[in-house]
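Translate sequence into structure tokens.
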Amino acid sequence: MKYENHAVHDSSIGNNSAGIMSVLAYSLGTMLLFLPYVKYVAWLVPLIIYLKERKSRLVMFHAMQALVLMITTYILVISFTVLTFGLTHGANFVGKLFELSKDYAINMNSYITWTVIIYVFLNVVGAIAGLMYKELKLPIFGSIADRIVYTY
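Result follows.
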């Protein structure tokens, strides 16, 4: 993981510290993921922070990295959920393969759990880096965020 240091500066959003706004880009969206119905629009938090920020490239980078991380997690969780549903309900038609597919469905649920654990861990790492005014590029997610922020 590569990082770049930034000098202490303010964000253009409410004249808050850029470090605090970077933390909010990760933490507000993650907290909203655990609320019923609101979790479907939680990805808007980092997107709004990214679009509203005018001064700080640090805040823009962390907001975009949080957004890419959140969307990737959404895609993985939805994929595992669809596979779990297909394996458990599709097996009713097959009969003999029911036990085998039930085991795969249990594995898919553990994949969902691990995906969420990794997501929360990467959010904490990104938030700490943002608070320390470091532009920490997480593997895969950081390069995508970097490309978006610095080309537009």
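Note: The longest strand covers residues 2-5.
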